[in-house]
Structure formats: C-alpha cells, structure tokens
Design goal:
Length: 420
Amino acid sequence: MNRLTASLLAALEALIVVAIGVFLPLVPLTLLWAIQYDFSVDWFVFWRAAADIWLLGNGVDLTVTLNDATLQIVGIRAAAEPFIVSFAPLAFALFTVLMGVRTGRRSVRSGSWLAAIITSFAVFVVFAGIVGITAINAIASPSPWQAFVVPALVWGLGLVAGVGIELAVGDTDDPVLERIEDLRDRMPSHIDSIIVSALRAATGAVALLIVGAGLVVTVSIALGFSSVVSLYEAAQVGVVGGVAVTIAQIAFMPNIVIWTASWLVGPGFTLGEGSIVSPSGTITGPVPSVPLLGSLPSNDLAFGFLGLAVPLIAGFIAALSARDQVIAALGIRSRVGYLALSAVVIGVIAGGEMALLAWWSAGAAGPSRFESVGPQPLLAGAMCAALVTVGALVGMASGSSERVASSARSAARGMRSHDG
C-alpha cells in the first residue's frame, strides 16, 4: 500500500470515529425529540447536546450557564453563576482510544505509518474542532481551544499505542524500531530487562485491579438491585427517559469501575464536598437520584478492608510473571537486590498508572459541593504503589530455589559460551 492510500485510509477512519462518537448519543436524543417532544423542539438543540456529550467524554470542559427557569428547578444558589463541568463519561474516550489503536496498527501494516498517523491526527483535529464550534450555545458551551486539542490528544494516544503494539509484536524492519533497538543495545542488558519486565508486569497488575473492580461493581449492582429499581420508579421518566438514563449510566461505567479500583486500594472516592465512599465507611450526604448510586453501600462494611487483598494479589501475580525473565537477565549477579528493585519499579509504575486513571475519571460534576467528584489521584496512586509493591516483593521472593539456580546456571553458561 502506497503512502497516499495509507494516509487517506487513516484520515477516513478518523472522520468515521468522530461521526460514530457523536451519533452514539445523537440517536437516542433524536428518538427523545420525536417521541417525547413530538418534533416541537428545534432538533439542533439535540445535536448540540450530543456534541457536548461527546466532547465532554473526550476531556473537553463545558461552561454551563443556567437560565432562571432552570435555576428554580435546580434550587442551588451557586448555579446562578456560570460553572464548569469536567466530569467526563469515559466510555467515549475509551472508544476513541481503542479505535485509535486499531488505526495505528493498521497504519504500521500499510508500510507508511508515520505519514498515516500524522494525516489521521490532523483530520481528527479539524473535525473535532468543527463539532466543538457547532456546539457553542448560551447554556452549555465547550472550550473552543480544548475542542480542537483534547479529543485529538485522546485519539493520538490510541494511535501511538497501536503503533507501539504493532512494532513490538509485528515482523517489520521499521527504521524507528531499529533506532529504538540500537538505544536498548547500549543499555546494560539486565537493566533493560528489569525496565521492560516491570512495565509489562505493572500494566498487568493494574489490569487485574481493574478486572477485580469490575467484578465488585457487578456484585454491588446485583446486591443493590432493589434500590436501583426504586430510584428508577421514583424518577418517573417513562420508557424513553429510562432508556436515556440507562445509556447515560453505561457511558459513565468506566468511571465507576476506576472509582471502585480506588476503593479497593483504600482511599475510595467522593461524591462531592463532605462525602466519602471508602472501605472504612460511606458518607454521601444529598446526592442526585441516579439509579446506579443505589448500589452504593449505605453503612460501614465490617470486612471492607478485605478489598486491599486485590491489589496485593495483583502485585504478587505480576511479579511472578516477570520474575524468571529478570533472573535470566541477571545471570551470575546478585539476585536479591535486583529482584527487590524490580518489585519497587513495578509498584511505582502501577501507582503512576492508577493515578492517571483516577485523574481522568474524576472532575467537576456541577456547582457548589459537586465541584469535585471521584478519587484523589495522588492518594489513590500512592496507595496502589504501596500495595502492589508489597505484593510484588512477596512474588519476587517466591518460587522454587532450584528453578532460580537453574536459570542462573543457564545464563552463566550462555555468557561463557558467548565470551568463548
């Protein structure tokens, strides 16, 4: 595939991803316009709402200014002044990243990946910016410069990840990969092995933590199903409104899973100023009647801190997966110090990844006490790093001594034969 064809295909994929992202909320909103409002409202209002949702989901802040009629319904004095909403439904960002990974991998296989991803990124900048401009209105207005920049950065993250994955697993003589290999060859082999193994293991530990959090969310919804149904009934939004509320909650499900991961590592999360949901107890105060919130624990959990076992186990499994590779790279060097160093590096990287996820999942959901919801990134990252490190230290210290000795002898023989 020549460079022009690869670039055009990547540009088309960027356009399609923007279109799909906007149309996902636009379809149910259009049905609401037709069924609930009987075509009596200007459809462009629903277009702007869909654009706002997509932009918010990809990290663009919205400035909300409520009119007098809405203020009377809301009943919050602080809402009289314009306020920022930055609490992003991460399902949209997740979709953008995954599609970016797909495009990045396809671009590498085309043989002209650099030109393709640059073109794709530029197209995404243009069309995301157009969506942002059309969404500007007196009630909810996205940040114009963020509309051009932030969604494209999310797309770019997926592109870079896709290129990296394909270069790592694919059979290619790419010059960029050759330069990276040259740089790695200049680094001591055991240090390079520790870094690569720790990065893979830490990412695996965070993935295990997220999987565990997803299971906890599923169990919580099942146990609190009666409360969830009661909140649906109390809302009295009808069938179409119920479907819209459900879709909105699905869009925020990645946030909930990340918040639950923060709960598992200890700090928990907040639902506004003066509230806390953590293993030690739950204090929420007045919160919106969102059905999904009915699954939250309503009192102290006697065994809440058992959740701390999840990051410990994740760190243990991650260290076991990396241990043999580190030992083989060390050869005849002293193993204890390097194994402990590897465990610490795994914990630090996992903590950094958890902090980024917590930061991405939190934000401002409204005025007054809702200016900050979600976990505290630094605290969640620090606790995750500490717990994963402890689990990784145990994992690095585990295993058969015979296998360790065998790995070391094999590495030593390899070094002697190479020197010979």
